[in-house]
Amino acid sequence: MSNSSSPLLEVKNLKKYFKTPKGMLHAVDDVSFTIDRGRTLGVVGESGCGKSTTGRAILRIVEPTEGEILFDGEDIRSLGKDQMRRMRTRMQIIFQDPFSSLNPRKTVSETIAEPLKLNGIITDKGKRMERVAEIMEIVGLAERLYNAYPHELDGGRRQRIGIARALALNPQFIVCDEPVSALDVSIQAQILNLMDELQEKMGLTYMFITHDLSVVHYFADDIAVMYLGRLIEKAPAKELFRNPVHPYTQALLSAIPVPSIHNQRKRILLKGEITSPVDPKPGCRFASRCPYASSRCHSEEPQLKEIAPGHFNACFLNE
Ligand SMILES: Nc1ncnc2c1ncn2[C@@H]1O[C@H](COP(=O)(O)OP(=O)(O)OP(=O)(O)O)[C@@H](O)[C@H]1O
Fold first, then answer.
1. By the 8 A CB rule, do 44 and 211 touch?
2. Would you kindly state where each structural domain of the chain is located, as residue ranges?
3. Distance, CA 200 to ligand 1 centroid (Å)?
4. Which end of the chain, N or C, is surrounded by fewer C-beta atoms within 10 Å?
5. Across all residues in the chain, what is the average pLDDT?
6. Atom from ligand 1 closest to the CA of residue 229
7. What is the assigned CATH class of domain 9-90+171-313?
8. DSSP code of residue 145
9. What is the ipTM of this complex?
10. Are 285 and 303 in contact (CB under 8 A)?
């Protein structure tokens, strides 16, 4: 049952495996977390660690292999096609490169109107266009762009269209998949500010995927770190930056430049081969690159455990 004090999203033991010619690729392997209402979970990790697949599996854009996804108390894996279509109006996604998902033959207003039309939310064309004008104003797209085409716009404005499309259906939850990674730093800040304002105004809950930890430092409430399909550490953002416990998180953080020379962390360079995500061997997936790995790490998989309130870690070293 839904209850406003319960998390909006609960993901339990989520798995997504892909069959490949070499074997079963464990893209997401037994991942569990929750996101509270109106909060932002940042999901970070290197390319290929399973961030996007986790986001897509939650929305069932890719069908999960195993696990439970509770959205507002509802088990969304049990929903039929029509029920899932309705549920998708409450759960949306914003992509890194909105351009590739925008139809070049549709104007800005037609693009934003499309989800309203397809989902039969506003059937009257005049009313639909009024709503489009309202959303354009909310996301900071000038009225004069109403009849512009996506290729006439810069990356920041295109991403505003992506955000507008996601907002059109009045969702509660948005998976933001690297939404600012393709943008210049100054434009990144504008888009992050906009997303922050929208969250405040509309009470949105975000899952914010990025390979760039410095982006989520101030933007996310909590941060989850993934490594080769596994969630290896999760903590409130401030706590994670102040006290990273997992050796992989420590290495990731050491690569971020810090403005003050007094606070500079010593850069930890990872050596060793990256373990294959195809039919992974038993043991910790980070062991081959971990400076502290013991024989136990090569035979047994550490589980995520709460080591301090809200701080979870999957490493034998800090148990
Ligand atoms: N449809 C698919 N078929 C087969 N393998 C896939 C598919 N989608 C993703 N993968 C694989 O799953 C793993 C996780 O990919 P995913 O895109 O989720 O990672 P990511 O952390 O989001 O990386 P990136 O930032 O590069 O997108 C990768 O090894 C990827 O090659």
1. yes
2. 9-90+171-313, 104-170
3. 31
4. N
5. 92
6. 14
7. alpha beta
8. G
9. 0.97
10. no
